[in-house]
Design a protein that fits this description.
Blueprint lengths: L3 H11 L2 H12 L2 E2 H8 L3 H13 L3 E5 L5 E5 L24 H47 L3 H12 L2 E2 H8 L3 H13 L3 E4 L2 E4 L9
Antiparallel strand pairs: 1-3, 2-3, 4-6, 5-6
InterPro entries: ArsR-like_HTH, HTH_ArsR_DNA-bd_dom, HTH_MetalResp_TranReg, WH-like_DNA-bd_sf, WH_DNA-bd_sf
Organism: Methanofollis formosanus
Keywords: Coiled coil, DNA-binding, Transcription, Transcription regulation
Length: 210
C-alpha cells in the first residue's frame, strides 16, 4: 500500500490529462517519443517532460531496441479506489424546474455542442490533408538535403517547438555526440539554428551568408 505522500504525488501526476492519455496509450503497447507525440498530437518537448516525470516516480520504465530507439512501457498498473464516509448527505437546494424545461435546455446544449464538434472535425480534416501534402513535400526535399532519416526526425521534432540537445537525445534515443554532429550539419545547411542551449528551425526565407 502506498504511503500518503506517495499517493499525493501519484494523484498530482494523474491530475494531468495528457499524462493520463500517455498511460492509456502505453497500456496498449510500449511506444517511443515520436510515436506518442504523433498519436496524441502533443509536442515532443511536452511528451519528454511527462515521460521523465513518470519514470522518476517508477510508473514507467524504458528500454532500447536494436536501432537505439528508446521505448517506454508501464512498470506497474495504477488503480485508485475512492471511498466515501457514511456521514449524513448534504441536501442540495436547487430551484424548481419543470421536466420539459430541463429536457429542452439539454437538447439545446447538445445541438450547440454537436455543431461545434462538426466545425472542429471539418477544420481538423482540412488541416490533416494539408499536413499530408506538406509531409510528402518534406520527404521529397529531404532526399536531396538531408543525410539520413534521423536528420529528418530531428527537423520534424523542431517543427513542433524549440528543443535542447538533451531533449533531442531523448527523442531519437541516440547519444549526445551523434545528435550534436547532425545538428551542426543542419545548422551549416541553414535549416536549423541554435540560441543558447536550444535548437529551432531557421526562420523562412533567411538568406545564407556566402
Amino acid at each position: 500500500m502506498l504511503e500518503s505522500t506517495e499517493t499525493s504525488r501519484i494523484l498530482d501526476i494523474l491530475g494531468n490529462r495528457n499524462r493520463r492519455r500517455i498511460l492509456d496509450l502505453l497500456r496498449q503497447k510500449p511506444c517511443f517519443v515520436t510515436e506518442i507525440s504523433d498519436r496524441l498530437m502533443i509536442s515532443p518537448k511536452a511528451v519528454i517532460e511527462h515521460l521523465q516525470l513518470m519514470e522518476q516516480e517508477r510508473i514507467l520504465s524504458s528500454f532500447h531496441d536494436d536501432r537505439r530507439r528508446k521505448y517506454y512501457c508501464l512498470t506497474r498498473e495504477i488503480r485508485i479506489d475512492v471511498q466515501f464516509s457514511n456521514g449524513d448527505p448534504v441536501p442540495l437546494v436547487r430551484p424548481a424546474e419543470s421536466l420539459e424545461g430541463k429536457y429542452l435546455a439539454s437538447l439545446y446544449t447538445l445541438a450547440r455542442m454537436i455543431r461545434a464538434r462538426d466545425r472542429l472535425i471539418a477544420d481538423l480534416e482540412t488541416i490533416e490533408r494539408e499536413i499530408d501534402v506538406k509531409m510528402n513535400d518534406i520527404v521529397r526535399y529531404s532526399r536531396n538535403l538531408l543525410a539520413s532519416e534521423v536528420e529528418m526526425d530531428l527537423v520534424l521534432a523542431l517543427a513542433h517547438c524549440t528543443l535542447t540537445l538533451r531533449d533531442l537525445e531523448e527523442y531519437t534515443g541516440l547519444e549526445a555526440g551523434p545528435v550534436e554532429r547532425m545538428l551542426n550539419d543542419l545548422i551549416v545547411k541553414g535549416i536549423v539554428e541554435q540560441n543558447g542551449n536550444e535548437y529551432m528551425l531557421r526562420g523562412p526565407y533567411v538568406k545564407q551568408s556566402l
